Amino acid sequence: MENQYQLYEHKAQYYETDQMGIIHHSNYIRWFEEARTDLMDQIGFGYDQMEKRGIIVPVLSVNCEYKSMVRYNDHVYIIPKIEVFNGIRLQISYRVIDKQTNELRAVGESKHCFLSGTNRPVSLKKIDPELFELFDRYTGKDFDSLEQ
């Protein structure tokens, strides 16, 4: 897996801009979700597979700190990192990096929990050890420093 990970790239779209010609702040949260979904697919267990097993992963909180502007047609990498995972909760950080200049555009994080199909908190370690081990294996990994 480690040599296969591809950074998530996003091309800023015109509809994402605001009246000032820069990317509207709300879009970064969407980009975080896109990168998180891509990361989960790449590590081998996407949302669709979890939901088939009766597990849902709602967002508890999300934040973003803007460092510099992204404009229409810019290409950026959104780099997620699993920071905290204990089988019940999950915290992912994000860095938005300009593809051309490597300038940091934004940082953020999202916090999640794992729920059953009946919206009850669950421990992956107890109900799905395979999934627990998968998330645990990637906690703390810096995906941007891996070979492309």
UniProtKB/TrEMBL annotation:
It holds the Pfam family 4HBT_2. Keywords: Hydrolase. InterPro entries: 4-hydroxybenzoyl-CoA_TE, HotDog_dom_sf, YbgC/YbaW. GO terms for molecular function: fatty acyl-CoA hydrolase activity. It comes from the Bacteria. PANTHER family: 4-HYDROXYBENZOYL-COA THIOESTERASE FAMILY MEMBER, NOVEL THIOESTERASE SUPERFAMILY DOMAIN AND SAPOSIN A-TYPE DOMAIN CONTAINING PROTEIN (0610012H03RIK). This is Acyl-CoA thioester hydrolase.
